Automatic annotation (TrEMBL):
Name of the protein: Transporter, CPA2 family
Compartments where located: Membrane
Chief location of this protein within or outside the cell: membrane
Keyword tRNA processing attributed: no
Segments passing through the bilayer: 6-23, 28-46, 52-73, 85-111, 117-137, 149-172, 192-212, 241-258, 270-288, 329-348, 360-383
Organism listed in the record: Clostridium amylolyticum
Residue ranges constituting the Cation/H+ exchanger transmembrane domain according to the UniProt record: 17-370
GO CC terms: membrane
């Protein structure tokens, strides 16, 4: 029997809410409960929401990621960036590249995989999912140096991952003779995607600041804010730009050219059901059957990526002379990996067009199940040990 799409949305919301409450009894983050709820009601277990409905819910996923990026952008006030200096940039580059290099070397020399496969899988290792981390920070109202550094790092991490992936994929394609111009594929395309998105976000930020002054009342301001975020998401998709970077720059521009915090506050009041739906839908997409095919190579990817993130974050924070708690615990909060990594794996599957692409996507999907279930828990542990979550 096929139900109306709104029926499935209702099931998703109630399931997410219920399992979020359940896991909170065990001192786990709500987001872990949302993911578990999605897995249980999805095609892998109870089949309450079928495969055919999941693809129709992509607008919720895209919208939630837009609001998450907008929220992260609000942390990029120039005053805060000046305080951080180049430290955050150093940390971001090293936590991403250490993961890339360790996965590359492990795949080539330990697991004896082809260079083509290894460098693309290694590049995807750079990506970190900001959504789960942001949700943990919000739930526990975490504050402090670690949170400030973490939000800035996950905001820039997407750009580093896209660049690393684009270069690695171009090299991999050249190995099987399917590459076009290296300059076009590895430099020009990612540059347009990243800088075009930044320009779009900055322009939209100025427009939102101007329109927010003309809004009469909070209702109109909420409509203008949501409309602007949706417009940026739509234009990003149309012009094949990074929607995460565009929405992040929208928030960053707004926070730096106006003292009006109402657009951010109103967006925060709008997003709770959107985020519950987003993470529960992410659970629907986690196909447990891929876990059986992950194999020793997949386990190696998970382990060496984690080591790379931990080591890179520590070294970067040490060089940046960050506070001790940032050096110790930042890497733990950078473990989650989801949307961007899955998207990059799908691009790789299409571009490589053979068993290499399929094998790569299977490993990323299986690793996502592990990272998304345990990542939020590790993020909470890191923030608690750093003293930025008040233990009740």
């Amino acid at each position: 029997m096929s139900f109306n799409l709104l029926y499935y949305v209702a099931i998703i919301l109630f399931s997410g809410l219920f399992f979020g409450k359940i896991v909170s009894k065990f001192k786990l983050p709500y987001v872990t409960g949302y993911l578990i709820g999605g897995i249980l009601i999805g095609p892998s277990v109870l089949k309450l929401v079928p495969h055919t409905a999941i693809s129709s819910l992509s607008i919720i996923t895209k919208s939630a990621l837009g609001f998450i990026a907008f929220s992260i952008g609000s942390e990029f006030s120039l005053n805060q960036v000046k305080k951080s200096g180049f430290g955050v940039i150093i940390i971001t580059i090293l936590e991403a590249l250490f993961a890339v290099i360790l996965v590359d070397l492990a795949m080539i020399f330990i697991f004896k995989q082809s260079v083509q496969f290894s460098i693309v899988l290694g590049a995807i290792a750079a990506a970190t999912a900001p959504a789960a981390t942001v949700m943990v920070i919000r739930q526990y109202k975490a504050k402090g140096p670690l949170v400030n550094t973490l939000l800035q790092v996950v905001a820039m991490d997407d750009a580093v991952a896209i660049i690393a992936f684009s270069v690695s994929l171009a090299i991999a394609q050249s190995m099987n003779g399917s590459s076009g111009s290296f300059f076009k594929e590895a430099i020009l395309a990612p540059s347009i995607e990243i800088f075009g998105a930044a320009i779009l976000g900055i322009a939209a930020g100025f427009v939102l600041a101007l329109l927010s002054k003309k809004a009469s009342g909070e209702d109109q301001l909420l409509v203008i804010t949501i409309g602007t975020i949706f417009l940026v998401l739509g234009l990003s998709e149309y012009f094949n730009l990074s929607s995460l970077i565009a929405c992040m720059m929208l928030g960053a521009t707004l926070v730096n050219i106006t003292t009006n915090k109402k657009p951010f506050n109103l967006a925060d009041r709008f997003t709770p059901p959107l985020f519950i739906a987003f993470f529960t839908i992410a659970g629907l997409d986690l196909n447990l059957s891929v876990m059986t095919s992950i194999g020793i190579i997949g386990i190696g990817y998970v382990v060496f990526r984690v080591i790379g993130k931990l080591l890179g974050a520590y070294v970067g924070a040490k060089i940046a002379n960050s506070p001790g708690n940032v050096q110790k615990y930042l890497g733990l909060a950078l473990i989650p990996q989801a949307g961007v990594a899955i998207g990059l794996s799908m691009i790789a599957e299409t571009a490589l067009g053979n068993n290499v692409g399929l094998k790569l996507k299977t490993i990323i999907l299986a690793a996502t199940v592990i990272y998304e279930l345990f990542g939020p828990v590790l993020a909470k542990i890191a923030l608690t040990k750093a003293g930025e979550i008040k233990v009740s």
